[in-house]
Design a protein that fits this description.
Length: 169
């Protein structure tokens, strides 16, 4: 991820990553960001304004980052953002990837999403190696994103441990 992503928000800002099940067209991306911007313009958390930004990366990842100047976004504020994302996605027929899906970059550089069983098959077939880039949409802060924890080689991510991806050596 570019280190300049959300430059006006501090590292401690909360981060939510939603992964689209299919690549999003440019038109859908623009409409989704427009709908999210309308929400973010009025977003509050316990009557405190929330500073927030949203972007879409790799035609798949909807990233929403937010902070409140004197604290953190409350549970009600988080619920409001989830509802806004779900409403925008629903109106545009965007489906999200499942929480147990594995997201990786294939040998052609394309972001792909597969089940855990399919990912194991890709490892067994040699299509996924410890050098394959994988994604972790469970990050919760901008600091994690900025440190490069979102997209990493499988050997450096939880994927390497969980799936016991063999070393190429």
């Amino acid at each position: 991820m570019p280190p300049s992503l959300f430059p006006d928000l501090p590292d401690h800002s909360r981060l939510w990553v939603y992964t689209a099940a299919e690549p999003l067209s440019r038109a859908v991306q623009a409409d989704l960001i427009e709908r999210l911007q309308a929400f973010m313009d009025d977003w509050t958390s316990h009557q405190r304004p929330v500073r927030a930004r949203a972007t879409i990366q790799d035609d798949r990842f909807v990233m929403l980052a937010a902070t409140v100047d004197d604290g953190d976004v409350s549970g009600c504020g988080i619920d409001a953002s989830v509802n806004a994302i779900d409403d925008a996605a629903g109106n545009l027929d965007v489906r999200w990837a499942g929480p147990l899906d594995v997201i990786y970059r294939d040998s052609n550089g394309k972001v792909d999403i597969v089940s855990r069983a399919s990912f194991r098959e890709l490892i067994a077939n040699g299509a996924v190696t410890e050098e394959t880039h994988v994604f972790d949409p469970s990050l919760t802060t901008l600091a994690e994103l900025r440190k490069g924890q979102f997209e990493q080689q499988a050997a450096d991510a939880w994927h390497g441990r969980v799936f016991q991806i063999p070393s190429a050596a």
